[in-house]
Each structure stands twice: as C-alpha cells, then as structure tokens.
Amino acid sequence: MVETLEWGPFGVKASTTDGRVFRADQAVVTLPLGILKAGRVRFIPELPEEKQLAIAQLGLADAVKLFFHFEERIFPEGIVELYVPGANPDEWWSSTAGHGVGVEILTALATGDKARELLALPEEAALKNALQTLRQALGRPDLTPNKARLAHWQDEPHILGAYSKASVGASKARSVLARPVGYRLFFAGEHTASNAWAATVHGAYASGRRAAQEILALKPQTPRQAFRGREVRALVPSAQS
Amino acid sequence: MKTLVIGAGAAGLAAAQDLQKANHQVVVLEAQHRVGGRIRTDRSFAAVPIELGAEFIHSSQVPTYPLPAQFGLRTHYFNQQEDTLVRLPDGSLRTIAQVGCQERGYNNIRMVDWPAASGEESLAEYLQRNQLSGQKIPYKLQEYISDFDNPRRLSAQAALEFLYDKSAEEGDFRILDGYD
Hints:
Shape of chain A: elongated
CATH class of the largest domain in chain A: Alpha Beta
Helix content of chain B: 25-40%
Order of helices and strands of chain B: EHEEEEHEEEHHHHE
Largest sheet of chain B: 3 strands, antiparallel
Oligomer: heterodimer
Strand order of the largest sheet of chain A: 8-9-10-7-11
Structural class of chain A: alpha+beta
Order of helices and strands of chain A: EEEEHEHEEEEEHHEEHEHHH
C-alpha cells in the first residue's frame, strides 16, 4: 500500500510499504475517507488545513449488512422491500427478487447506533437479534433461515468504514475534499461527490471522471489563459513547453 | 503526462479509464489483491450472488445506470412504492403506495415546496421545525435516514440536496448477476 505521497513543483512521488517508488506528474487520490481520517497515508507536505478540517468534519457511517437465506419465499408475491420504522434493522430487502428462484435471501441494513449495537455483539447474537425483528415485523415467529451472515467495512484494513455521511456542520465538507491541491493532487471517491450523489457507486464513478477532466484540462493544448497566475504555470511543466 | 491513480475502486477506475482514453500514461496503485473497493460480490453464500458492499444503482438518472446493459447484465427494478411494505404502528403491513407520503410523495418531490434548511441545523431540528414526522416524510428521506444515521447527527442541508436530486425521484436497480 501507499505509505507516503510527496507532492510539489517536481510532480508526485508515491512510496509503498514494500519499498517501491512511483513518480508521475500528478496523482488522483481516491483513498477512502476512513483511510484519510486514520492518516494511513502521509502527505508530504501535509494537505492544506481546509482539507484536513473537512476530513475531520465529514462523518463516516457505521453500517452493517445482514444476510438471511431461507429455503422458501418469505415476502408476499410482488414485495421486494420492507421498512420497519424504529426497529433494528429497519431496512430489509430481497436479494433474490427477479431471480425466479424458490429460495429467498433477505438482506438487512443497520446504521448509526443500530449498527454499533449489533456490531458490539458476537456475530451469532447480532444475527439472532436481527432475525427477531423480522419475525415480529412479519408476524412469523417461526421464520428460521438455514444460513446467515453479516458484513461490514469498519475493520477492513484498506477501507476502514462503510461510506461518508454528511454530519451536522459538514454540508460543505465534500466539496472541499473534491478540490485539487497545487495542480498535483486531484481527489475522487464517494466522499468527494455532491451531497446528492455521495456514498454511492455513481457518486464515486462520477467523481473519478471529474478528476480525469480536471487533469485533462492541464494538457499543453489547453489555452494558457485557463491557468491564472504565474505560480500555477510554474506548477504545470507541460504547459510551459 | 503521467498520472498515478491511488485506489482501484469505482472512482479510481473511472479516472484511469478516461485518462487512458486521452492517451495519458496511467499507473493505478491498489493496496488489496482485488479491484472494486467497496463493491464486493460474494458467490459462496448461496446460488444467487449477494453484495457485501454496494448493492443498487440508484435510479435511471445516474451515470452508472447504462453500464449493466453495456455489459449484458440483467437488473431488477425496486420501485419502492407498490413493491415495498412499511410496518405501521398498529402492526399492519401496507405498501408505500398505499400509505406513503401523499402530500409530499417522492414522485413529486421536486414539485412540492420544501422549506429551506436554516444554516447548519440538524435534520432532526429541520423535521421538527417543519412538523414533518411519520407518514409526512417521503420514503426516500426515510431511506436516507436509515442509510446514514439518526437525524440528530445528519446535516439538514445535505439531506435536502439529496432529496431534490433527480436520482431521488425513482426506485433502485439491483444487478442480478452481481455488481462486480
């Protein structure tokens, strides 16, 4: 993994934990918010203060997905999703819908306090509690899956969290995180998408394309007036050639 | 021009693809032994794939919507109205189409006049100030709350920016063959 990322007028230089060095004119940093928050990659020099503040302000959602495999269909015909206000988990859907199979996998999502509550338990107990919610919601105390598991991202060493969340006071943080730094570092990832698109694959995808466009705008054929000020020109070697 | 792309998730791969198409030299660095980031399809749990990470394409209004068809992948549409049940306080189950927010239903979210957020207030403060609770909250906002956190901890402004987006006007598409 990348351990340090040096940036400056010379370009960028990434050094990995296994001792390899990669140099380029610029970098697109798509490190997950959890990795940025944990400071796992050292930027040399450090990122501007506004970026560091935004990294701290923007929340990281606690989230856990739970999967229950049943030998029979559970949801009524034509139903694919169930919302149980106040319950834990409160959001359930069928991950077999549209497959035309006789079994059913119900997937549940819990976030925030609910996720923390479940993740504090051993996996088996968390699954049992969640199943109890489903039984109550559907009025089917007999419901018994033949297989169950859960998944979360908070302990994945190269991810460290599910997705960003716009905490109170952080409505501008994502747009700050999306800004390039010194025409050397460009930023993408779900946490750099707009508040409308963040925390999703389409947000991540669109942010990657946006970062590519920002870099392509630095190309030599770009009219010089696109770069304002001497400092900027000095940082774009290809624009001088 | 040479670019390092750090991370081979959806963002990094999209950036790398566009740069490569423009004849840039691109090196993608990935810490794990797989690409995809927080997209991770599991095929060992059951005969049907499950998604340990991202699972849906959120409406036909987003740039990833055309991709499954381009790769010959099948999707299933969750309309989140007739096909979604909500459990009411009396314990009965009704579809969102039957009991969902009529006055500010998510199909006409953009037509209703949602009041603006006041500064950096929380979503809980916003909902209380505007007397929005229970069935007055459209399903897409309920889902936003379920997907993130307690409204006390969420920015009202950011939630409204989501709610006013085109992508919040429709249901979700699930990729039957797996997101990866």
